[in-house]
Amino acid sequence: MSIWRKLKYLRPSVRRTQNRDMEEELESLAAIAGPRELGNITRAAEQARAVWGWAGVEQLHRDLRYALRSMRRSPGFTITAVLSLALGIGANSALFSLLDTVLLRNLPVHDPERLFFIENVGVKGNPNGAPPYPCFERIRDETDAFAGMAAFTSNDLNVNIDSNLEAVFGQYASGSYFEVLGLKPFLGRLMTAADEQLNPPVAVISHSYWKRRFGGDPGIIGKAISLGPDNVKIVGVTPPEFVGIQPGRMIDITVPITLQNKALLHDKGGWWFYLVARLKPNVSAQQARAEVDPIFQNFMGETYTPLDEWRKEFDHIELLPASKGQSYLRERFSHPLLVLMAIVGLVLLIGCANLANLFLARATSRRREFAVRLAIGAGRGRLIRQLLAETLLLFSFGAASGLILAHWGITLLTGFFAVGRSPVRLDAHIDLRVLAFTTVLTLLSAVLFGLAPAVSAVRRDAYPTLKDSESHVTATHARATTRQLLVVAQVALSLVLLVVAGLFIRTLVNLDKLDGGFRPARVLTLSVQPLGPAYQGPRLDAVWANLLARVRSLPGVRSASLSTLTPLSGRDSMTGVTASGFFLHGSQDRIVHVNTVSDGYFATLGIPVLLGRDFVSSDVQGSPKAAILNETAAKFYFGDRSPLGNTLDFGNGLYQIIGVVGDAKYQSLRESAQRFAYVPVTQPRRRESRLTLSVKSYGPPAPLLSAVRQQTQAIGPNILINEVMTMQQQIDANLVQERLMSLLSGFFGVLALLLSAVGLYGTLSQVVIQRTSEIGIRVALGATRGAVVWMILRRSLATVCLGVVIGVPAAFFATRPVESLLYGLKPTDATSLLLGTSVLLFTALLASYLPARRASHIDPTVALRYE
Amino acid sequence: MDLLQGTLDMLVLKTLILGPLHGYGIAKAIRGSSNEALDIEFGSLYPALKRLEMKGWIAAKWETSDHNRRAKVYRLTPAGRKQLRREHSKWTDFVSAVAQVMGPLGDGAKS
After folding, report:
1. What is the pTM of this model?
2. Which of B8, B24, B74 best probes binding to A when mutated, by most A CB atoms within 10 angstroms?
């Protein structure tokens, strides 16, 4: 039988014609043969139709139509089921998409498995970037194992496009960068090794930047823009899937690394970039490492003496796989994301338990329908196949709605990350992998939770059902127990989720209340950078003095100051210092963080001066150099003695310690106390070309912004203002992870609670219905309303208590992995547990109230006649 | 008597070798030529006809009989003839093989 002929019969029009023909034939034969001669003609026709094949498809079509009809007939069930599914599957898909971007997705480059990062690794195994540039050059020239190597480092760059100064996410990279990655240009061409000659200097922009800033204009090729003093020509656009080698950091512009400060390129002591290399085919990472490490060790031996002090940070070379892209994102967010994934997984389970309950209830009420169909000869397999079609259809609707929700969820979540000083731009979207994940998830839940209960209704006990009333005990008892167990499971899981939410919310509250050592209220910060050759030397100093004077003169400004660092800015600066009279135990003892500040800094930021004095305007060039220590540094270097009068040596002359201030948190709210030294901006270790202006206002700080901007730009041309933020926004950005976890875990905790409440309500209602006649009898025999309510409530309480009893140890167990995300509390925090339990009990009571009330209003005369 | 599907197909093909027939006629022919031993249910015969038609061994055509009655009449196709020859030889081989194994019943009991 040819496949073509079989395929022909798939078309409904062909089947229809054939059917008609067959009917005609059978009619004619019946006329010829006489009545009853031919026996069961219908069966004959049916068998004949089966010969055409594709009976399955026809059946499926019919089943689906029937399923749609029955879904429409019970809208309540359908909507509840689809909604629960949409929420559960949607949340899971959204989180999976995020996880995929952060953890799983490979770089869209050619053969990413052959790409490796060449990193120094300290004695403890911590990777630290690439060795200094001269060492890189040696490795490049003297090894044989690599097909190509490229250095790269990302920087905030300021470019001048058509006389507009703009800030972009830039990257300095070796000319071979794109070759090593194996990328093809989307437009124009990409950088090559020859471009390092800067003849002329070129730039390559990213696809998203091209679309965003230039509107996708193909005329961009050849456009000249300027980067500081250099003019660069845009020569190409990278493909849209490529955003940079670090997921989360989307690079806008790449320029040759040779545009960097020449001094850096020759600096044997500068560790400032990363190195990516592609292995030659047939070379293993081990072999390559064996070639690179000796060169590195030689270089270190020449440059650093004594070597041992540096071993802690720079011990040997390791080759780390680059295929997922080196990512601080992964380190920072993988743990919280996995926790969130677990949470939404649990929510899905709870939702599915509800669905299972719904299906069980529905199956119970359809017992008669199935019994009748079985009685008139429907095959059991046929009925099961129909149930399968119904279940799959319902779950497909749920999954489809879920994907729409997921899309919104992803947009919301990525928006959450994309704020703050260093926004994390995630390229998460719904793609094939997410779809595959969603499909598998849907199928699994459909089979486990939708089909199993439905199939159990189509069982051997069909015949007895036809004769029985609703209260047929033995058939429904098993099902009732299952439903109750499902509710118990839901309660337990909800408790776990509520406790987790409580933990995260309390963490956020703890961190929010935390004293960062400064007063963030009404403080505005902005980064000021005078650009161009005009601002050098004393002219630059004058700018800073001018700026402070102008801003301070504005009405509404309480105080203003300049500094290289502000608390929680994410910037840091460290150096080595020798404190007089302090005995060094190791070179690590010399390390302090340094903040170069103007006078009034501590007043503006609300950092208390504990001893001595603040810098004043007379601490200028010419006067003795003054320095201030923070409390931790003072205690470290001078113990209980007063440090005032002692000196600090940063390597450019001695600074006299004139004051001690309180500790402030500069990197993160969670950090432990660090040693800080402050030097005046008028007596700096080196001239700063960019400073942060902090302004404390009497009223809300935002209205002052335009005035401050005006004053700043009025000083002269080409003054770049950047990173405008209030201190409170800074704190929020620092707490983005905690805020995210609290928000999401809280949301899902409440969702889980609601779902369980619905489940509890549903089962109780069912119980009331089932025991209607019993209740009627009791009431008739004199039971009070209260007694009936208590009878129902007792049932509910038993279920909930069992759930809580299981849930509490489950919570203890489940919250252990989140310990590192918490602050100021342990995972076994009693308050969160108590709060979670009380919320749960309260909600359960609420959910039980309505069915119990309904039970108490049962009219015995009606109930006793109820079948 | 119960028949295997393949055997029924073979019988139908053989029946048509003498000339075209409609569905009912085929049933009567088989009954007749087996001396009433094989009374094929129409419900089994009709699907078999459709099967054979799909396989291309028989072809059907609407014809008007002498009593002015319309009926779908089936006839053997050349491919059908070839198939019949094949089936026939397979069948005779099968029958002789079974007969050899069975032989006469040597236990003295009357069959």
Report:
1. 0.69
2. B24
